[in-house]
Amino acid sequence: MNVTSLHIALVSETFPPEVNGVANTLGRLCQGLRERGHRLQLVRPRQADDTAPNDDQLLLTRGWPLPGYAGLQWGQSSLHKLLRRWQRNRPDVLYIATEGPLGLSALRAARRLGIPVVSGFHTNFQQYSDHYGFGLLTRLLTGYLRWFHNRSRLTLVPSPSQRLELQRRGFERLELLARGVDGQLFHPARRSAALRAEWGLCEDEIAVLHVGRLAAEKNLQLLTRAFRQLQRDLPQQRLRLVLVGDGPLRAQLQAELPEALFCGVQRGEALAAHYASGDLFLFPSLSETFGNVVLEALASGLAVVAFDQAAAAQHIRHGHNGALATPGDEVAFIESARWLLEDPESLRRVRLNARQHAGKQGWPAIVERFESLLHAARDTQA
């Protein structure tokens, strides 16, 4: 089917090569839209060592470091710069991925110029405030996010559970845009005996893996408690905890888990090899809008233990291709991990089913859905 080419402006305060779920998703969406013949104009803060010039496809703004998030920035409010740019080079539709100062100025500029706006709800900032000791801000943040997104023609959310939660909080015009996974990159065939040897593991020993930011909102204290409990309950098994990623809790976790392996940030094929070389994937986070790492772990053939929400609720059938616990039920979370480790045949079967399911969750269908939603927003009367 031939689809009219769009001129799309995309505004985000994070973008590859920065490593986080929002940046990874936007990189995939932009790549897919370009491959489908659309013209993109990216607006983002200038990154460290960024030498890219401003042109019709890229507008760089100043940014300020985001406290507690090394390498990430708030984009500077750029209302007048955006007005000048879009008066001269008007996009058909605007996608705003982040709600910071840059995103807010883009929303204001678009509304002033009558440009249709689609927004994406990528991060539960209102939940993060609790983890960083700013619980009083939760209501204010929720109100701001609702105000922000309700001024767009559509707000895209990554999971049905997220859509229900936001509807309950008064968010309007919500549409589902799921996430995909690169099933060629994240594949069990990338399992590396050499890497496992570096971890000090033989093939019949168990690598318990976690991939993600080492930060308070990821509920990593449960990861620590779960691993310690598994060690106590299964003394006959050799378990090695492997953490991929970095963040403000790294030093604390290293002190609590001196025998664990901390591999830092990994990218591309190295990241894929780390996934595939694991056996069991523990994902205790309760703050995700989606959780791309769940799909990456499933595609890599790992048995995933997670809470029944976001990506896990969408892609895991308990006992078939992973294990789910009721959100917040830490006992059930640990028991699910224990069940898989105590039953090697179930572990093997779950891992095979994980790959079979996730291998079908490619990005092309997601990009096509994104494209259709952008067209719908452009064609809808304000």
Automatic annotation (TrEMBL):
One of its GO terms (molecular function) is glycosyltransferase activity. It comes from the Bacteria. Residues 19-182 form the Glycosyltransferase subfamily 4-like N-terminal domain. SUPFAM superfamilies: UDP-Glycosyltransferase/glycogen phosphorylase. PANTHER family: SULFOQUINOVOSYL TRANSFERASE SQD2. This is Glycosyltransferase family 1 protein. It comes from Aquipseudomonas alcaligenes.
